[in-house]
Amino acid sequence: MKTFFLSFLGGLAALLLFFIILPLVLIVSFLPKDGPQTASGAHVLHIDLRAGYPDQPISSDFGALFPEMSFVEMLLKLNSAVDDPQIRGVFIRASEVDIGSSRAEELREALLRLKGAGKFVMAHSQGFLVSGPSAYRAVSAADEIWMQPGASFEVPGMAMETLFLGDAFKRFNLTAEIEQFHEFKNAPDVYKQSDYSAPHKEAMTALASSIWTHSVADMAGDRKITPDKMKSLLEASPYGADQALTLGLVDKIGWPEDAADEARKRGDGDLVDIDDYHPSIASDGDAVIAIVGGEGDIINGSGGAPDLLSLNTARFASDTVAASLIALEDDPDVDAVVFRVDSGGGSATASDQVWRAVQRLQEKGKKVVVSMGSAAASGGYYVAAGADAIVASRSTITGSIGVFGGKVAIADGLRLVGVNPASITVGGDYASFNSAERLSDAQRTKLRAMLGETYDRFTTLVSEGRNLPIETVRSIARGRVWSGEDALKLGLIDETGDLIDAIAKAKELAGLKPEDKARIRLDFHRGSPFGLFGEAFTAAQMSAALPAAETITSVLGEARTKALLQHLERSQTQGVQLTSPMILER
């Protein structure tokens, strides 16, 4: 009955897509999107950071049906607005909670460029809640920060949180049979430990301290006080809105509607949602800089349906990303490529496939510059290591040059409920590796040998790609994550900066001068609404699990629920993994 019901839902969804939604999508897809689609005259761009944006355009077919603007597209639009005489300023609805330190840093740089061009920037907040400094840092460069009456200002510091499943595994007699290289490769710790190990704690403390220090410095510079003074003010919070005003942390107390009216008055024009602002992004010039990218866990295969269970639609699919890179090999129009990476890693073989695609581009004479997003760690660093240049924000989480692999032995847990797994294998001892039982000594030895080979390849590729002695790479690898700021000191990246800086670097490597014009071409893979027919059944089946996910979310919050489900998903992953621990910044 359940199967019939789910099949019926899938069929109903497919019919709905075919007869109602798909025709509308096809009509909209043929509407012109190039050039400003706003009336002439002065305008003020409106950005709502509470909405949340994927780093890159969603590549799934559902993403094609319900497209939403990505953070990359927002940065490019803001950069175009710098030279757009119709855009007088920007009005921002600030997020109340964390948006990610790297993202806050890139947005702040975009706002500083706008201010440098004589545009005004206003922001309104309904409160900055305890979730790390990024929500405040994202708008600290505004000319005016408004706060709603009665709201609270809570930016006392930052924390890096990890959800450990070790005690839960023990309770259900599950055993994480996972080997790792080396002591800082902490992703498997979530299955084996109940708290931070000494190396894990050391790495997380250093990472949080690095990001907090330069975040405070940025906010202090924006508010025109010393870093020590800003640090003292923030760490003594929370404050009410009136006290935040008295201390100079915000500029005005008022309602969002009043702030929006003030922005219209100051810009002498209407508010235009940035999603509806369609400038010709650097459309002049003979040179072309193509932007491709990958976001999320690195997996083998091509982009597929949204993963509704893990609340995550982003998948860094190796076939899809490699194909996007390889398609540029013989494109005579493309002078250089910016490869945007926002990933904490994943499959070793998938990472290797994308690494090779970068090498192929270089063999054809195309320069490749990696722009790192919030994270480019483990497999995310692997795919970037061979690029001609790497640009990351100071807050990017990167490195994690290490490897792990194994399985979760569930046999004892099944026996608790009267299920006795038994298997018959023919062949060598390793043939029973995927059984529910624990590893034998011989299997563990072979697993470690295989992981050691992958680790040696990883460190060798980093040594060659970054032109660092192998001994140096081994000393800074061992699975440890670094902030972008520390990665620069260690030689793991070439410079700190944002997406726009990466584009400038690509122009430089292509032999262009800073003042030379270049066309920016987005070559992200985008799904097709026609692919939805196959996805409709999958989505209907996954929707049966949504009530449980929603219940958990109501208790733990979305970020913790997403982390928990991702940990459980990763625990079932086969093969060698280049994955960094999922970190909740708050």
Structure in words:
The protein has three domains: 1-31; 40-156 and 237-276, 2-enoyl-CoA Hydratase, Chain A, domain 1 (Alpha-Beta Complex); 287-581, 2-enoyl-CoA Hydratase, Chain A, domain 1 (Alpha-Beta Complex), CATH 3.90.226. α1 packs across α20 (532-542) and α16 crosses α17. α4 (101-116) links the parallel β2 and β3 (120-125). It is built from 22 helices and 24 strands. 46% of the residues are buried. The strands form seven sheets. Strands 11, 14, 16, 17, 18, 20, 21 and 22 form an eight-stranded mixed β-sheet that branches. The longest helix has 28 residues, at 2-29. It starts with a helix and ends with a strand. With 586 residues, the chain is α/β, with parallel strands linked by helices.
Give structural attributes.
22 helices; globular; 2-enoyl-CoA Hydratase, Chain A, domain 1; alpha/beta; 8-stranded mixed sheet; 586 residues; 42% helix
What's the number of domains? Answer: 3
CATH topology of the largest domain: 2-enoyl-CoA Hydratase, Chain A, domain 1
* First-residue to last-residue Cα separation: 44 Å
User: How many β-strands, per DSSP?
Assistant: 24
Strand content: 15-25%
Supply the CATH class of the largest domain.
Answer: Alpha Beta
Tell me the major beta sheet.
8 strands, mixed
What coarse outline follows from CA principal-axis ratios? globular
CATH superfamily of the largest domain: 2-enoyl-CoA Hydratase, Chain A, domain 1
Radius of gyration over alpha carbons?
Answer: 25 Å
Average the pLDDT over all residues and give the rounded result. 86
Give the helix/strand class.
alpha/beta
Helix amount:
40-55%
